[in-house]
Amino acid sequence: DQQVKQNSPSLSVQEGRISILNCDYTNSMFDYFLWYKKYPAEGPTFLISISSIKDKNEDGRFTVFLNKSAKHLSLHIVPSQPGDSAVYFCAASPIYNQGGKLIFGQGTELSVKP
Amino acid sequence: AAGVIQSPRHLIKEKRETATLKCYPIPRHDTVYWYQQGPGQDPQFLISFYEKMQSDKGSIPDRFSAQQFSDYHSELNMSSLELGDSALYFCASSLGDRRTEAFFGQGTRLTVV
């Protein structure tokens, strides 16, 4: 049972344009969401997070939007750069979890073309 | 800045052998998590420790065990290895406050032959 879903396995975007990566979740107990970026053979790198009390969080070129009623979040990268090419994982943490366990989506491979 | 250190980076073992993976968290981080990522799959949570006590358990096989030591480093012990255990094993660390993000190590690639 996949509680965090990234339905697009890949995304290709032109340099300078906007990249939009989507993530859906099913567990209403999730209240903290994170995006990680991963290069091959490396560990995931934290990008940005959002708490369920917010609907938007922005950090430089990265903005995460949360729609709790739709159980949907998205990561916007503007403008996209070739160095952004990587696999992006959405992750969620449940309210009751004190250990900070993260449930990951399947990942979306972003390719930014010059 | 110091990051999460995992050793070894690569490990090749035969079926039914034992493997030990080590994780050294970021200084002052008291929580450690272990994840397993199979080929083409998303990272799956195995187990976590907070202040040297197991804090949560995921899909960790009974053949695996882990612990966190007094210096907060953690070791994942894997026995009776199977071919299906071949994967990338990530360790992550964070402060006890779960609102902080977890920082990941570079992973240990285990190959069971």
Largest sheet of chain B: 7 strands, mixed
Multimeric state = heterodimer
Tell me the Rg of chain A in angstroms. 13 Å
> What is the helix content of chain A?
under 10%
Sheet with the most strands, sense and barrel status of chain A: 6 strands, mixed
**How many extended strands of chain A?**
11
Enumerate how many helices of chain B there are, as a single number: 0
Which stretches of chain B of 5+ consecutive residues score pLDDT under 50?
Answer: none
What's the pLDDT, averaged over the residues of chain B?
A: 91
What is the chain-wise order of helices and strands of chain A?
EEEEEEEEEEE
Rg estimate of chain B, integer Å: 13 Å
Tally of separate helices of chain A: 0
Q: Could you characterize what this model shows?
A:
- Chain A is built from no helices and eleven strands.
- Chain A is mostly beta strands.
- In chain A, the strands form two sheets. In chain A, strands 2, 4, 5, 9, 10 and 11 form a six-stranded mixed β-sheet that branches. A five-stranded antiparallel β-sheet of chain A has the order 1-3-8-7-6, with no helix packed on it.
- In chain A, strand 9 and strand 10 form a beta hairpin.
- With 113 residues, chain B is mainly beta.
- In chain B, 0% of the residues lie in helices and 50% in strands.
- Chain B contains no helices and eleven strands.
- Chain B has strands spanning 5-7, 10-13, 19-24, 31-37, 44-50, 53-57, 64-68, 74-78, 87-94, 103-104, 108-112.
- In chain B, a hairpin with a 2-residue loop joins strand 5 (44-50) and strand 6.
